[in-house]
# Entry
Amino acid sequence: MQRREFITLLGSAAATWPLAARAQQTDQMRRIGILMNTAAADPEGQTRIAAFLQGLQQLGWTDGGNVRIDTRWGAGDPERIRTYATELVGLKPNIILAPSALELLALKRETSAIPIVFTMIYDPVRSGLVESLARPGGNVTGFSLGEFSLGGKMLELLKEMAPQVNRVAVVLNPDQAPHVAMWHAIEAVASSFALRLTAAEVKKGAEIEPAIEAFAHEPNGGLIVVPSPIFSAHRELVTALAARHRLPAVYGYRLYVMSGGMVSYGVDPTDLFRRAALYVDRILKGENPADLPVQNPTKFELIINLKTAKALGLTVPPMLLARADEVIE
# Structure
């Protein structure tokens, strides 16, 4: 081989090597951890996961292809969620999806380095989970369910649906900062309705029934069930207790109304899981979660179960029915 030909060949190969190395780096298997707040058998949880996976696939990520996904199901159990948080961080994934504050706080105790995307947290700035919406800072970003003032709107909706209610129990977990903040938002509105508020404190599933039973012994009561994986995991029990004690109740998610609850007002979690795939994609491609702004919801759904309202002897105002996104008859 002539010297000039050899130099040309060498230069060509040298130019090709970095491209090949970059292609290999881009195509290497990535790892995503998911810490769900539902049980594996929960259809709602499966629907949310499916939406996330569909979003990933549209962006070119396929489980078992160029990405490996490790999913753990917390089932609304704080102890199980803490155990799985430790386990997932130990797997050293490139990123973790953590729907609510219960999972996020458990993961933040384990890592400040692995990027985390959340999908269902109220007012993450005032909850102390991010520095600001525009620049979250740290290793966390995601999608908000809205501000704590939504709690006040839930109370207004309860009074609109059931004007006779003069006592309201707010079912909440006092260990969760967003729940405490939402309690204060509800408290601020309650004074204008001359309502007596009760904090029905629930830290685990076994405490749901005693908390509601203790409140239900007096007439003219109503419930506000603050969004929580603990309550969602036991939604059939919650809605059954409300029906048994003839308690008009407002919930944060549509899934309660589909289980017999009276009315819900809030964001569609499935849509947030689908949108979360975009942030996971951007972070896997090198963007910093600290620079990705937390996104606020653009739409709130009002879902009314007319059958449940009638069973409670309530007549839903026509104006409220006209505002509803869905009416279940």
